[in-house]
Fold this protein.
Amino acid sequence: MKHNFKNLKIWSLSMEIAAEVHKLSLEFPKNEVYGLTSQMNRAAVSMPSNIAEGSNRSDIHFKHFLNISLGSSFELQTQLLIANQNSYITEERTTEIESKIIEFQKMITGFISKLDS
């Protein structure tokens, strides 16, 4: 079954996360431009991109792309915590974005389970 990615809540939430991460990373020190800033933006962009790319495939292939998206979310979550550890972002902002990432992880895991049934 084909899915219209724009109608998927997981895609919308991941787009929101990507936008927030991009805005957030603009405040990082300039020496992180090719480091953490770049990695976080790549991971954040990977989340909705893989959902979109997989949405036009069969469910078995779609699940593969959803799992890549899920993996990117864990990568992003870790990088967010590293940014907080380095005091690039406040505890409050970290918690705010991390909770959205965790919500995304729960939603996409549930979506993958539904494709299995």
User: Anything to note?
Assistant: The mean pLDDT is 95.
